[in-house]
Write a structure and sequence with these properties.
With about 190 residues, the protein is an alpha/beta fold. The chain is built from nine helices and five strands; from the N terminus they run βαβααααββαααβα. Helix 2 packs across helix 5. Helix content is about 55%, strand content about 15%.
């Protein structure tokens, strides 16, 4: 099985690109959303450490955001609970798809949390800053202060770019994206 990790800046279109590969995708953000909506054990753990903010189930993203904005240490507390659960979900995904030729790992903190193997192919998604900002502002719960807090826990973009074997320039249209993805797949296979 060939593992392709997708990395890039917040809002660069990593999930958009990941889904265009046409192979099974492990989407860490979607897993976190599911956890907040359906995992009562995760809720109990978060409620125990952040009762002031996490006090109803399903967990509202607004509550998580508020906790993070109030105190930097709250983000670390949330990560300590959520990330191990996401790792388990990824392990199940890998077992389920072990016979697939290629799988895609869409994990925003793939490099930061060392969730990759040396043999993984890393693809960096590059987008223009103005396009990223425009897209981020369209998000329902966009908050620039929250984005800055998330950026603080991420490795520098230039480092991610250097660690990558391939760079895809995402202009948020399918025109050149599919061609670039096909070139990468041809080179890998």
């Amino acid at each position: 099985m060939i593992r392709i990790g997708i990395v890039g800046d917040i809002g660069s279109g990593k999930s958009f690109v990941a889904n265009k590969f046409g192979y099974p995708v492990f989407d860490a953000d979607a897993e976190v959303d599911r956890l907040y909506k359906s995992d009562r054990d995760c809720f109990r753990k978060l409620n125990k450490i952040l009762p002031k903010y996490i006090n109803s189930f399903p967990i509202l993203k607004k509550s998580i955001s508020l906790a993070i904005l109030k105190n930097d240490f709250n983000l670390k507390k949330i990560i300590k609970i959520v990330h191990p659960i996401v790792r388990k979900k990824m392990s199940k995904f890998l077992i389920k798809n072990k016979k697939k030729k290629i799988i895609i790992l869409d994990i925003p903190l793939l490099l930061e949390n060392k969730m990759y193997k040396k043999s993984d192919i890393i693809v960096f998604v590059e987008s223009k800053k103005n396009k990223i900002l425009k897209r981020l502002k369209k998000r329902k719960n966009y908050n620039s202060k929250l984005m800055l807090k998330f950026k603080k826990i991420q490795l520098p973009i230039e480092y991610k770019k250097k660690k990558s074997q391939f760079i895809i320039r995402n202009n948020f249209s399918n025109k050149f994206l599919k061609r670039d993805i096909n070139r990468i797949i041809e080179r890998i296979l």
